[in-house]
Amino acid sequence: MAMKNNPTFKIVIPARYGSSRLPGKPLKLIAGKPMIQHTYERAAQSQAQEVLIATDDPRIADAASRFTDNIIMTSLEHSSGTERLAEVVELKSWPDDTIIVNVQGDEPLVSPQHIELVAEALENHAKAGLATLATPIHSLAEVFDPNAVKVIMDHQGYALYFSRAVMPWARDAFTMDAAEKQHVTTLANEGNWFRHIGMYAYRAATLRQYMTLKPCMLEKTEALEQLRVLYNGIAIHVSIVHEQPGHGVDVEADIAKVEKILQTLN
Predict the structure, then answer these.
(1) Are residues 11 and 105 located together in one domain of the fold?
(2) Which among 73, 75, 153, 233 has the fewest CB atoms less than 10 Å away?
(3) How far is CA 157 from the centre of its chain?
């Protein structure tokens, strides 16, 4: 399918103060700026019509107000960024066909090109309620890493399933020893495995529908929120990218890594 240029979309950056591994994460300074500012500025480099920071904490709102007026206060009760986006959709009364890209507040090196790609993919695949990204896996260690979420797609690029487990399972190459990395050290047919990149574009209608859905057994088992969507028959389109996503911030040590990358880029 031919792609259109310049999709019409908005970006929402959900940012909460509480974090079990790094409290106050959006306000951590990276090269002299709070992390949320880096994320906002990178997102603003895309072709988005609007970039909003959605937070539940006045400390984040205060810090953000020093570089933008595009801030919206949301509930303290949300358990995920998706729920926070859904509230923004209602607060802003966005029409059902509005495309919204969720950019996590702890992604100070987020790619504007990836943002545009996922928005474009959703605009061009009418059957999809969501669009996301994946990248090829080239190492056995990553295939067997439960923190590397795998995705398999059909011939049209729609997700069939997401899992922390190895999939597809190469029957003739993998054994239980392979899982322990005792014998198999390289991947044959590398193009069979894809790692999910957790960036999503949603239609506003999908976010409204999501709020009516209860967590399903698959989501609870794998601890993967997107399985609630698949379980309820909402199609997810997956675009393949070969550029790795920018380094995110999960723990304190990641800050120094991001600063080093920023120095290289500058």
Answers:
(1) yes
(2) 233
(3) 17
